[in-house]
Amino acid sequence: MKIIFLGTGGTYPSKERNVSSVAVQIGRDVVMFDCGEGTQRQLMHSSVSFMRMKAIMVTHLHADHFLGIPGLVQSMSLNGREEPLKIFGPLGTSEAVKSMLTLGYFKSQFDVQPVDLDPGETVEFETFHVKASEASHTVPALIYALEEHPRPGKFDLGKATELGVPSGPLFRSLQEGNAVQTDRGLVAPSQVIGEKRRGRKVVYTGDTRPCEGVRALATDADVLIHDCTFGSEHSTTASEFGHSTAKQAAETAKAAKVHRLFLIHFSPRYDDLGTLETEAREIFPNTTAARDLEVVEVPYRNGSDREYGSGE
Questions:
Q1: What are residue 307's phi and psi, to 5 degrees?
Q2: What CATH superfamily is the domain 2-151+205-297?
């Protein structure tokens, strides 16, 4: 699993940062969270193929989070995409996307399927799902948790051999969940395969004030990508406009016991992100201020091992 930060700025693009967009790549599949203007160009500077995109998850209908959709859809169409593209978001997303895609002479050569989501709904994919919850912003807004389906338990080769299972096809049959017959009797998968192992979990907040919805959804996440529009010196402004400070993002990460925090959606007033990173690290040390086009690998955790460190 890889996270690609396509745009880490808020409000409008700056010389250093494009506006909001984050892609998560799992195997060959890509899910994008938000799609601010200019995202398609950011994709061209990355390793992500927009032709492999399974869905776009829009957090809310402020311009810096969804105005990149028409250009991206047009580029997909001009490059011969045939697979349908689903675009999810809060109430009003379906109408907004349909309106954008009927402007001028624009016509997509593939099916674009916009869908309104309610907080609490889950979108299922082949090997993972995305759950939506309610953010605390100035307009209807969602936060998302992408979670892999549980992985099969580990196959105990020694135990299988001890029970008389010969190596070869019977090993595979057991791993596929089937009981097998041996010279010593019937061997069930539960005898040689451990408990299922948790998949990885990435939470993306979009724009939000600190709220219980984020803390609950982010519990024990491998990665939390959190709104950090301002430093604490602008906490009143942050609250008024439905955003979080670096300190508040770190407090949420600590309360949710996440493993790594990435700050995102920086106000254009911040050229140097060091002060925001420092503010957050005083509370949650395992914090990084994300940079445009940064790529982050999300490893599996083995049992209780914390490969990222706890941040506590």
A1: -70, -25
A2: Ribonuclease Z/Hydroxyacylglutathione hydrolase-like (3.60.15.10)
